[in-house]
């Protein structure tokens, strides 16, 4: 074989090896799993490949933001699911001026079993100056939490002493901060029929469309609302039903 032929053969061999190497590199960098790569997977790959401290720091920050965003989504979904299951809270107690209200025990009976089922919990933080501040901290097991703060002066009505006045305001603010955090309302009687008549045909059709849009079923929704059918839903209950479906739609990313 002449020198020219030998050099030509070497050149062809080198080109073949280069192409093979290029294919190996391409295969090595192909995703090993279908779907989006999470920041943690990116971080693992960066560590394995000996990435710089600056790159690792940025990936760790990205992972932290990703985890917070995921936790918020799980929180919103849990709130929507819980609200769809919590029964109407009955105003079971009578205060001054014969005004009925739901005491904390009534709220807890309706709320606690349901939110616990969906990984939610609540606690209160208090602070006192010239006014009493109560903060309800509503948390999800994934790590996200939100706060609702209300404030008011000591309730000196009636013949309460100073301690009783503080205690009365504390329980009042606890009740209302919790129901505000969950977006709940109380009703005057067991079946929620606080307004005369039932919902209109348009409202019934609207609820049915929304129930289907969020992937729920009408019988289960009626069971939650404690009605035999949508047509039998009291007019005063429409707003609560609408809010529950809107919350569920938001959590699922559905536009109503």
Features:
55% helix; 256 residues; 7 strands; two-stranded parallel ribbon; 13% strand; alpha+beta; 8 helices; 3-stranded antiparallel beta sheet
Q: How does this structure look, described?
A:
The chain is an alpha+beta fold and 256 residues long. Among the domains are: 30 residues; 63 residues, no CATH class. The protein is 55% helix and 13% strand. The strands form three sheets. Strands 4-5-6 form a three-stranded antiparallel sheet. The protein has a two-stranded parallel sheet with strand order 1-7. Strand 5 and strand 6 form a beta hairpin. 20% of the residues are buried.
Strand order of the largest sheet: 4-5-6
Distance between the termini: 79 Å
- Please bin the fraction of helical residues: 40-55%
- Tell me the total number of β-strands: 7
Largest sheet: 3 strands, antiparallel
Broad shape: flat
Radius of gyration of CA atoms, rounded to a whole number: 30 Å
